[in-house]
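Weekly modeling sync, notes
Attendees: S.R. (lead), two postdocs, one rotation student

Agenda item 3: backlog of single-chain predictions. S.R. asked that every request posted to the team notebook include the full sequence so nobody has to chase files. The rotation student volunteered to paste the first one in as an example of the format we agreed on. Action items at the bottom.

Example entry:
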Amino acid sequence: MKSDKVLIRTGGGYCNVNDHVKKYALSECLIIWRTMQQKHITFNEAVVNLLQMHNADEQLIQDYQEETTDEISDLFELLCSLMKQKEFGKYLTREQKSKLNSEAGLN
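Predicted structure, as returned to the notebook:
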Protein backbone atom coordinates (compact mmCIF):
# COMPACT_ATOMS: atom_id res chain seq x y z
CA MET A 1 0.00 0.00 0.00
CA LYS A 2 1.15 3.44 -0.81
CA SER A 3 -0.76 6.22 0.89
CA ASP A 4 -4.41 5.29 0.25
CA LYS A 5 -3.77 3.20 -2.88
CA VAL A 6 -3.28 -0.54 -3.20
CA LEU A 7 -0.51 -1.37 -5.63
CA ILE A 8 0.33 -4.67 -7.30
CA ARG A 9 3.94 -5.55 -7.96
CA THR A 10 4.48 -6.29 -11.64
CA GLY A 11 7.51 -7.10 -13.76
CA GLY A 12 7.99 -3.43 -14.59
CA GLY A 13 7.31 -1.94 -11.16
CA TYR A 14 3.93 -1.36 -9.56
CA CYS A 15 0.40 -0.99 -10.89
CA ASN A 16 -2.77 0.37 -9.28
CA VAL A 17 -5.01 -2.56 -8.25
CA ASN A 18 -7.97 -1.24 -10.28
CA ASP A 19 -5.86 -0.98 -13.44
CA HIS A 20 -4.41 -4.43 -12.82
CA VAL A 21 -7.87 -5.99 -12.49
CA LYS A 22 -9.12 -4.26 -15.66
CA LYS A 23 -6.10 -5.47 -17.59
CA TYR A 24 -5.72 -9.04 -16.32
CA ALA A 25 -9.04 -10.25 -14.83
CA LEU A 26 -10.36 -11.92 -17.98
CA SER A 27 -7.10 -13.70 -18.78
CA GLU A 28 -6.78 -14.91 -15.18
CA CYS A 29 -10.34 -16.25 -15.26
CA LEU A 30 -9.56 -18.08 -18.48
CA ILE A 31 -6.49 -19.67 -16.87
CA ILE A 32 -8.65 -20.87 -13.97
CA TRP A 33 -11.36 -22.13 -16.35
CA ARG A 34 -8.82 -24.00 -18.48
CA THR A 35 -7.29 -25.58 -15.36
CA MET A 36 -10.76 -26.68 -14.24
CA GLN A 37 -11.48 -28.28 -17.60
CA GLN A 38 -8.12 -30.02 -17.96
CA LYS A 39 -8.01 -31.43 -14.43
CA HIS A 40 -11.77 -31.94 -13.97
CA ILE A 41 -11.79 -29.95 -10.74
CA THR A 42 -13.94 -27.22 -9.20
CA PHE A 43 -13.19 -23.51 -9.16
CA ASN A 44 -12.20 -23.68 -5.50
CA GLU A 45 -9.82 -26.57 -6.15
CA ALA A 46 -8.30 -24.72 -9.11
CA VAL A 47 -7.71 -21.62 -6.98
CA VAL A 48 -6.02 -23.70 -4.27
CA ASN A 49 -3.84 -25.39 -6.93
CA LEU A 50 -2.79 -22.01 -8.30
CA LEU A 51 -2.05 -20.65 -4.82
CA GLN A 52 0.11 -23.69 -4.08
CA MET A 53 1.82 -23.46 -7.46
CA HIS A 54 2.77 -19.85 -6.67
CA ASN A 55 4.03 -20.76 -3.19
CA ALA A 56 1.31 -18.94 -1.27
CA ASP A 57 1.50 -19.03 2.49
CA GLU A 58 -0.23 -22.10 3.95
CA GLN A 59 -2.29 -19.90 6.27
CA LEU A 60 -3.63 -17.98 3.27
CA ILE A 61 -4.62 -21.23 1.58
CA GLN A 62 -6.28 -22.52 4.75
CA ASP A 63 -8.17 -19.23 5.21
CA TYR A 64 -9.37 -19.37 1.60
CA GLN A 65 -10.59 -22.94 2.02
CA GLU A 66 -12.47 -22.05 5.21
CA GLU A 67 -14.13 -18.95 3.77
CA THR A 68 -15.06 -20.10 0.28
CA THR A 69 -18.23 -21.99 -0.58
CA ASP A 70 -19.47 -24.37 -3.26
CA GLU A 71 -21.85 -21.61 -4.38
CA ILE A 72 -18.87 -19.49 -5.44
CA SER A 73 -17.53 -22.38 -7.49
CA ASP A 74 -20.95 -22.96 -9.06
CA LEU A 75 -21.35 -19.28 -9.90
CA PHE A 76 -17.93 -19.10 -11.57
CA GLU A 77 -18.72 -22.19 -13.64
CA LEU A 78 -22.07 -20.72 -14.68
CA LEU A 79 -20.49 -17.41 -15.71
CA CYS A 80 -17.82 -19.20 -17.74
CA SER A 81 -20.46 -21.31 -19.46
CA LEU A 82 -22.42 -18.19 -20.36
CA MET A 83 -19.30 -16.50 -21.75
CA LYS A 84 -18.53 -19.63 -23.77
CA GLN A 85 -22.07 -19.66 -25.19
CA LYS A 86 -21.83 -15.99 -26.06
CA GLU A 87 -18.50 -16.54 -27.80
CA PHE A 88 -19.94 -19.53 -29.67
CA GLY A 89 -22.89 -17.38 -30.75
CA LYS A 90 -20.57 -14.99 -32.60
CA TYR A 91 -19.93 -17.71 -35.17
CA LEU A 92 -23.54 -18.66 -35.86
CA THR A 93 -25.67 -17.29 -38.65
CA ARG A 94 -28.97 -15.58 -37.82
CA GLU A 95 -30.84 -18.67 -38.95
CA GLN A 96 -28.76 -20.92 -36.68
CA LYS A 97 -29.28 -18.58 -33.72
CA SER A 98 -33.01 -18.42 -34.39
CA LYS A 99 -33.24 -22.23 -34.59
CA LEU A 100 -31.29 -22.68 -31.32
CA ASN A 101 -33.44 -20.08 -29.56
CA SER A 102 -36.59 -21.73 -30.88
CA GLU A 103 -35.44 -25.17 -29.71
CA ALA A 104 -34.62 -23.72 -26.28
CA GLY A 105 -38.05 -22.03 -26.10
CA LEU A 106 -36.55 -18.54 -26.09
CA ASN A 107 -38.60 -17.13 -28.99
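Discussion: group reviewed the output briefly. The chain has a mean pLDDT of 83.
Action items: rotation student to repeat for the remaining queue; S.R. to check formatting next week.
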